[in-house]
Amino acid sequence: MKRLFITTIYMIIPCFLHSELYASENKQLNTSQEITTSSNDMSLYESEKNADMKTDQSKVIAQTERFEKDCNKGIGIACYNLGNLYYSGQGAKQDLEMAADLYKKACDGGNFDGCYNLAYLYYSGQGVKQDLEMAADLYKKACDGGNKDACQNFNYLYGIIHNLNNDHNTSADLYKKACDEGDMDGCYHLGNAYYIGQGVKQDLEMAADLYKKACYGGNFDGCYNLAYLYYSGQGVKQDLEMAADLYKKACYGSNTDGCNGLGNAYYSGQGVKQDLEMAADLYKKACDLGNMISCYNLAYLYYSGQGVKQDLEMATDLYKKACDGGIGEDCNTH
Could you give the CA distance from residue 108 to residue 130 in angstroms, rounded to a whole number? Predict the structure, then answer.
């Protein structure tokens, strides 16, 4: 008997380096979610780049040559800007290893934005072998040089490292410090700590407060987890409409579990008016983005003809996709 995974609504309690730092699949440590390209001492280079590089390719080439010449003279900001060009592929062929080398040169020369970006490359394993401790050390160096975002990332990342080393008390302290400094990933992970009672005394109300802070600060994994608490009535009064709204917010933030949760809500009519076509659309969106539970649920709709025209061949293909992704039982029967 085929069935829908309606009950498969769960908390995201991440395990870093698997798929990981759930805050992590689509999120970078940089609070702007991109390599930083701003600095107080970059006024000349940055203003020229904004004025010229986007409008005239010949000036882009000239600017790149100037950065290279000045970098070779040991001017850190030029190395930093040249690293940005190699990272983004603007003005130079994209080369992440070269970008890493240039950020290192900038960092060694006292440009702390170079340290910050090199830290991100070590965090994400771009152009260098992933090394979380090296990333943390570089964030610390950038932080000591006055980069506030680096301070947040240092606390957050050291929290991750201590968590990996089963030092949960220190991990929770560092998440709190990051959260207090405005790092929404830190708030999200601290919420996880309170939810499961790891490094702190379990407190579901505190978890809900932290997920709320993270969510409205732009962390969509926090929105998803807060939605689950409203759905299940943990730490907050059960409110299915609020849960659906938060699943929607998470989904719009490209959190595929949020799309699946909202699809479940439309399928069952919990918190929203039942709409099987909308459920199918949401399952498809999440499935296309790699959420195997949604692939399974969409397969069920094609199998049963709910919200879509019945299509057993499509159902079989989707069941196989979900099965290959580790979802479903008795895969050979699909």
Answer: 20
248: which 2 tokens?
Answer: 């929607």
Q: Which amino acid is at 166?
A: N
Global pTM reads 0.61
Alpha-carbon distance 1 to 312, whole Å? Answer: 14
Question: CB-side exposure of 16: number of CA atoms within 13 Å?
Answer: 20
Query: Kindly report the CA angle at 19 between 16 and 20, in degrees rounded to 5?
Result: 20
Instruction: Give per-residue pLDDT as tens, 175-218.
Output: 888 899 888 988 998 999 899 888 889 999 999 999 999 999 99
Distance from C-alpha of 16 to C-alpha of 26, rounded to nearest angstrom: 13
Pick from 67, 214, 86, 80: nearest CA to 145: 80
Of the candidates 250, 252, 202, the one whose C-alpha atom is nearest the C-alpha of residue 226 is 250
Burial of 44 (0-12, 13-18, 19+ CB in 10 A): exposed
Residue 19 has pLDDT above 80, yes or no: no
* 137/279: higher pLDDT: 279
Question: Which has the closest alpha carbon to 218: 67, 2, 32?
Answer: 32
pLDDT tens digits, one per residue of 95-108 = 999 999 999 999 99
- Spatial neighbors of 67 by CB under 8 A, at least 6 apart, are 45, 78, 79, 81, 82, 85
Q: All domains of the chain, ordered by start, with CATH?
A: 48-146 (1.25.40.10)
Please give the Cα distance from 223 to 245 (Å, whole number).
9
Pair of tokens at residue 145:
């040089």
User: Which tokens hold the place of 207?
Assistant: 């978890």
Q: CA 133 to CA 146: how far, in whole Å?
A: 20
Q: What is the DSSP letter of 129?
A: -
**Helices marked H in 12-164:** 43-48, 57-72, 76-88, 96-108, 112-124, 132-144, 148-164
- Tell me the average pLDDT of the chain: 80
